[in-house]
Amino acid sequence: MTDAHAHDLSDDERDRYERLGYVVRAGVFAADEVAAMIEAIVYLDDSSVENGCTWVVPASHRSGVWRTRSDLDAFGRNELDSSAYPDIDPVPVEVEAGSTVSFGSLLVHQSTPNRSERDRRALLFSYQPAGGTTMVDGLRRLAGGRAG
Length: 148
Prior knowledge:
This protein is α+β, with helices and mostly antiparallel strands. It has three helices and eight strands, in the order αββαββββββα. The relative contact order is 0.26. The longest helix has 9 residues, at 11-19. It is globular.
């Protein structure tokens, strides 16, 4: 990730990432290991707008980390602060059961509520280079426990 394209973080956001063990440079989240992570979703059911499919903002990974919400709990603060980006245009990723969709973890993505009577089952895999700080390590640090 390049600092030139990353979005500035608030003091609270910087503190949160530092507590998780990531490096923050010049007020910008710069965890290269996060930029190297890849997500893979294996869909067990058809995925559609009606049953809450994944939505992505094409090419958003090129901008680094985006400003997130500060009004939610620790997990909810991973959500994009959409009020800071009124012009983004997410697109639905509608796929058939058995499909796999892969993307880098910096791609802005979300799923929406399932408003249908159908299931929306999927398996989510996250891959990262060996030896990096994991989410479990970060959660242990926040809880005051020993990491890994």
